[in-house]
Amino acid sequence: MNATKFFSELKRRNVYKVAITYGVVAWLLIQVATQVFPFFEIPSWTVRLVVLLGVIGFPIALIIAWAFELTPEGLKRTEVADALPARPSPQRTWIYVAITAGVLAIGLFFFGRSMVWNVVMERSTTSQVPAKSIAVLPFANLSEEKSNAYFAEGIQDEILTRLAKIADLKVISRTSTQRYKSSPDDLPEIARQLGVAHVVEGSVQKSGDDVRVNVQLIKAANDSHLWANTFDRKLTDIFSVESEVAKAIADQLQAKLTGREEEVIAAKPTDNPEAYDAYLRGLA
């Protein structure tokens, strides 16, 4: 059998059709395995098995296509099928199968690439956020007198200022955080917008000379609490709360403090609480 007759025989026995259809369907199955299996945490060896079976099955499919033919009476050897009475040409169903499988395979391929790209970009963005970065959100005013909101703002500002004195920390300015709520619904998204890994939330309740301050340090990636505390103090001792909070946050983030930074954090701006209160009112 010369080359021309051999290739004609391949065409007559539908070997070309089987090869094309098998290749497209196999590619579809491989795309399903590589793009879908990982989302269901199916072991990676199953993906390799699908690829291996697809490669091994290809020559087997060609041999079967050469030796057998599908007839209305079922699968017959080619020699037997040739001896059967002539019958109408079968519809080209294989073309539609190949086209459909091809479209699905291409769709899965680009879907998988887009998912991989999103994961890479997300990891890249996450890796760019410094581990020792923090934003102090506005403190909620829980006082019965709503006019005491200035005092909650002052406590937040003092804690932020003390943290900003620590060179080992990246602290977002109050200007950038004041547009957010004290307890936002989507904390990870806000942290992403601000470019920080941690967020401080708090509340202040003032009644006469009594002050209660609640503070919590949150890891934005999983919205988990790293530290939280409640301080009940007199107005004359409010500066110690701000110093303790700044020091506790620095310890939780393992920030290195110099001797000078420790002195700055512990320093009191004044010993006169009335003057401090007037100062905060003036800022507001």
Could you say how many structural domains there are in total?
2
Please indicate the percent range of residues in DSSP E strands (runs of 2 or more). Answer: 15-25%
Count of DSSP helices?
A: 11
The CATH first-level class of the largest domain comes to: Alpha Beta
Radius of gyration: 36 Å
The residue-averaged pLDDT reads 78
Our measurement of the CA-to-CA distance between the termini, rounded to an integer number of angstroms, reads 98 Å
State the CATH topology of the largest domain. Rossmann fold
SSE ordering: HHHEEHHEEHEHHEEEHHH
Structural description of this entry:
The chain has helices at residues 3-12, 15-36, 44-67, 78-83, 93-128, 149-164, 174-177, 187-194, 238-252, 259-266, 273-283; strands spanning 68-71, 74-77, 133-136, 140-141, 170-171, 198-207, 210-219, 224-234. The protein is an alpha/beta fold. It folds into 2 domains: 3-127, no CATH class; 133-283, 3-Layer(aba) Sandwich (Rossmann fold), CATH 3.40.50. Strands 3, 4, 5, 6, 7 and 8 form a 6-stranded mixed sheet that branches. A two-stranded antiparallel sheet has the order 1-2. Strand 7 and strand 8 (224-234) form a beta hairpin. Helix 6 (149-164) packs across helix 11. The longest helix has 36 residues, at 93-128. The model has no long low-confidence stretch (mean pLDDT 78).
Features:
single chain, 284 residues, alpha/beta, 2 domains, 56% helix, 17% strand, rod-shaped
Quick recap of the structure?
The chain is an alpha/beta fold and 284 residues long. Helix content is 56%, strand content 17%.
